[in-house]
Amino acid sequence: MLNASVRQKAARQTTTPWKGLEVIPRLALAPAESAGPFEVLDLKPLSIAAAGSERDVYLHPADSSLLIKIVNGVRHSQADRKRPWYKRFRRDASHRVFVMEADEYIATTGQQGARGGNALMARIFGLVLTSKGLGQVVERIVDAHGNLAPTLKEVVARHGFSPELRYRVHEFIMALIDAHVVFNDVSASNIVVGFNAEGREGLYLVDGYGSKQLIPVYSWSKRLNGRRILRRYDTMAKKLLAASERRH
Predict the structure, then answer these.
(1) What is the pTM for the complete model shown?
(2) The pairing of beta strand 66-71 with beta strand 40-41
(3) φ, ψ of residue 226 in degrees (nearest 5)
């Protein structure tokens, strides 16, 4: 049992380390031109540049080669969205999509040994804190005039699905299969046609990828993944051909 002097000494040692400490102030919003890598970037003055099923996209206010994707909590929580039971227990919740996409980007880029990043996808730059929540920073794919690149669906609606474009889309899909990219939502809205940050022209995957199955069979099996993509690609191609014919 401790005697009185030892107990007094222990009590002094317990309280001493906390003296002089101050509460860290709440982070203030930082203007884009002066924001450091860990400061909260203010997106409130900006307009939404594009919107997906669950995320809003903003032009990066400090770098014209980048975009910021923000999860839209309202759309993500809509009652009509079906979510598997096991997803209710994940701590990343609505931001799971960031993890899925980063994992797929890392896996496929690592396997290809691409020093400049994955040439099939808009490259992922990282994460940033913003006034609208955690954001994912990605490469901005642009058209010939520097605007956001159109989706494949938009290109076909404007110019049709020419034999040349059909060949390019087919080659792109085959490249995704060869690289074993887990492309879940094979949709013309998830593929854009334009130029990356280095000026390389082509088709790029910007959404709808990453393993989301409880048992990741498509990540394990390149063959099963390829067969599934081909089935869904066939459906997508038929829709694009129909849309092209309706233009006339």
Answers:
(1) 0.79
(2) unpaired
(3) -65, -40
Length of the chain: 248
User: pLDDT of 28-73, one tens digit each?
Assistant: 565 655 567 778 898 989 999 998 878 999 999 889 999 999 998 6
Residue 115 makes CB contacts below 8 A (sequence gap 6+) with none
Q: For residue 220, what are its two tokens?
A: 């394990």
Closest by CA to 100, choosing from 121, 72, 73, 129, is: 121
Helix/strand/coil (H, E, C) string of the chain? CCCHHHHHHHHHHHHHHHCCCCCCCCCCEECHHHCCCCCEECCCCCCCCEECCCEEEEECCCCCCEEEEEECHHHHCCCCCCCCHHHHHCCCHHHHHHHHHHHHHHHHHHHHCCCCCCCCECCEEEEEEECCEEEEEEECCECCCCCECCEHHHHHHHHCCCHHHHHHHHHHHHHHHHCCCCECCCCHHHEEEEECCCCCEEEEECCCECCCCCCCHHHHCHHHHHHHHHHHHHHHHHHHHHHHHCCC
